[in-house]
Amino acid sequence: MGTGLLSFVWGMQTVYLGFNLALHDRAMAFSMFETLFMLSWLLVTVSLVVNRFFRIELFVFIVNVLGFSVLALNFFSNPNVSPLLASWNINDEVLFIHISLSIASYSAFVVAAVFSGMYLILHRQLKQKKWSKLMQRLPSLEKTDYYSFISVVIGAPLLLLGISLGLVWIALEGNMTLFFDPKVINSWFVLLAYIFYLVQRVILKTPGDKLALWNLAAFFIMGLNFVFANFYSSFHQWS
Question: Which of 140, 155, 181, 205 lies in disulfide reach of 105, CB 3.0 to 4.6 Å?
Fold first, then answer.
């Protein structure tokens, strides 16, 4: 019944998202409402895929809580407000691809953070020799570490492509000062944080609990970068 209701929610979100994008005013940039709605839709999509092929109920629950939280907070945004920089060229498909890749990378990093959190919970339970029903709902340490790693492997290239397209747009605009915009610089820090996670995982063979902590720290940096962009960026603003 829960899966059926979740599928119904996904179907309604898909219809609304498609309808909203079809009627989108191409004279305006994507609003905060549209951006967050796409992120929420992607999280629900990922939870359905995981529920279908991996059957990790606790993961599905946590991801859906996050997805619906994003959707609930989204109702406080103004759907008519878009980034302030007037030179956004909406007719340029580079912008749409840039936003889509960035949102997809954020979704992958949310998944990675959830698995890292599950890893730390299970690791602590095992270390303290506390057996509970919660442990029965969690995958093994090896699987949670692997799933987190795969999520970062997917998210990091998507973020790199998103940043690269953003830089291409800046170069085409000819406003070189935007290369040093705080949002752009912090996005590089986020990417480097996840690259360092991959280096620790693949080359340095860092223990799983430390990897999970670093992954959560990188996710925290990404969250701050997304939330506070409105206050310090000159062209990633919603107000």
Answer: 155
String of b and e for 27-61 (b: at least 16 CB within 10 Å)?
eebbbbbbbbbbbbbbbbebbbebbeeeebeebbe
Q: Using CA atoms, how far apart are residues 22 and 211, in angstroms rounded to an integer? A: 42
Q: At residue 90, what are phi and psi to the nearest 5 degrees?
A: -70, -25
Structure-block tokens of residue 182: 């705080």
What average pLDDT score do residues 197-224 get? Answer: 92
- pLDDT exceeds cutoff 70 at 160: yes
Share of the chain above pLDDT 70, in %: 84
Q: What is the DSSP letter of 75?
A: T
3-state secondary structure of 235: coil
